[in-house]
Write a structure and sequence with these properties.
The protein is of the alpha/beta class. The chain is about 35% helix and about 25% strand. It has twelve helices and 24 strands. The strands form six sheets. It has a seven-stranded mixed sheet, covered by helices on one side. Helix 5 packs across helix 9 and helix 6 runs antiparallel to helix 7. It binds MU-OXO-diiron. The site of MU-OXO-diiron (FEO) has 7 residues, from helix 2. MU-OXO-diiron binds next to helix 2.
């Protein structure tokens, strides 16, 4: 990525990664990603805001050379995860006079993960300011955006918020700014769902704090920059709210067609009632798409056969993710079929340690579903409709 100016004296110097297809050895990246790093030049001092993934160190160095940087006085580490801080060791070596700006929590992680020299750390507290000469950086500690040490940096005079992971998206885009807000919305939602959703209550607190800060530009550390911050702020307000939509997510797996038949009947029956059904055939599902659907849905119904003694491993994986992602789902049920025994329902229930949706009566039948069994599936759809009506999301 070339060096681009986003405001006078503030440039994007990070790297695009069009080819990366997996993050954390877990998250699919259909559009690649970027590791944004920003250079802020004041009259007296220069600061680098975040670095890049170590695989893209060369891009960062090239961009700094092209920026004709004579020295860097501060390297601000908003977040210690290695996709942003992994090039800190090299930057620290290249710029031996630079102080490394961290907070109390991130200092410890930087020392442990990156072998940062504590004597070079400048530890800032919430609201602290750093004068660069005509440009002021202010730091706001916003823990648990998804790690405990996260903070954001605000360029006061230019009203630019460097939000690191917060408001980001995995999207390699040569355009500096978000120019397709619809595509940007979907990518940001996917990113929120995969990374931020378990921390929505913390993020709600941070959003409250941000209300008092005038922001003209949000420059995250993944994806293009927002020149219209309200677009992403409005989206986040919706995602982190307690509001759910008249939708049912149905992650399912079927071995010989019995569970699939039940899922089909459930989805038909919900659709007939005007409720949006969103099935995911787990062996073929992009888990990012599943996570996105979980952001809004009032209800989840897991479809699984019994394999050996319990739920199919694909259903175990989906339920594990559900439990870890902590969506605001209000109701949950299970449908499926077994051959001779097993404790599928109890095993799935036992996995729900972090979420407490109301459990609706499962429909778990032996063998292929007959007419009576499919009637029970319809009854589940009726029960879901009733629940959705009770909480005011279904007419
Ligand atoms: Fe993009 Fe939490 O790192």
């Amino acid at each position: 990525m070339a060096v681009r100016e986003i405001a006078p004296g503030i440039s994007a110097v990070g790297a695009l990664d069009f080819d990366r297809r997996l993050f954390d050895s877990l998250i699919p990246l259909p559009h690649g990603t970027s590791y944004n790093s920003y250079l802020v030049k004041g009259r007296k001092k220069t600061a680098l805001i975040d670095t890049v993934d170590p695989t893209k160190e060369r891009d960062l160095v090239t961009n700094l050379v092209r920026s004709r940087v004579e020295g860097i006085d501060y390297i601000v580490i908003n977040h210690v995860e290695q996709d942003h801080s992994g090039s800190l060791p090299m930057m620290a070596e290249l710029f031996p006079r630079a102080e490394i700006v961290v907070n109390e929590k991130s200092e410890d992680l930087a020392v442990r993960l990156l072998e940062t020299d504590p004597s070079r750390c400048l530890v800032v507290k919430d609201g602290d300011r750093l004068d660069l000469g005509g440009k002021t950086l202010q730091f706001f500690i916003m823990p648990w955006v998804h790690w405990p040490e996260t903070m954001v940096t605000y360029a006061v005079e230019d009203r630019v918020l460097f939000s690191c992971d917060l408001f980001g998206m995995h999207y390699a885009e040569s355009s500096l700014f978000v120019n397709d807000e619809k595509a940007g919305y979907l990518s940001a939602k996917r990113y929120y769902a995969e990374i931020m959703m378990p921390f929505r209550k913390n993020i709600a607190d941070h959003m409250e704090k941000l209300k008092d800060i005038p922001v003209s530009i949000i420059a995250p550390s993944h994806g293009p920059i927002y020149s219209r911050p309200e677009m992403i702020l409005d989206a986040y307000r919706d995602w982190i709210s307690d509001d759910v939509k008249d939708e049912v997510v149905v992650p399912y797996v079927s071995m010989h067609g019995s569970t699939e038949k039940m899922v089909s009947r459930l989805c038909e029956s919900l659709t007939e009632r005007g409720i949006r059904a969103i099935p995911f055939n787990l062996p073929e599902t992009d888990i990012g798409e599943l996570a996105m659907a979980l952001v809004d849905a009032a209800t989840v119904v897991v479809g699984t056969p019994t394999v050996l003694f319990g739920p199919h491993p694909q259903a175990v994986y989906a339920t594990y993710l559900f439990n870890m992602l902590k969506p605001k789902t209000r109701f949950l049920s299970v449908i499926g079929s077994y051959g001779w025994g097993g404790n599928t329902i109890e095993a799935l229930k036992g996995m729900l340690t972090r979420v407490k949706p109301e459990l609706l009566e499962p429909v778990y039948i032996r063998g292929a579903p007959g007419v009576e069994d499919l009637k029970k599936v319809e009854d589940l759809a009726i029960a879901i409709e009733k629940k959705h009506r009770e909480i005011g999301i279904h007419q």
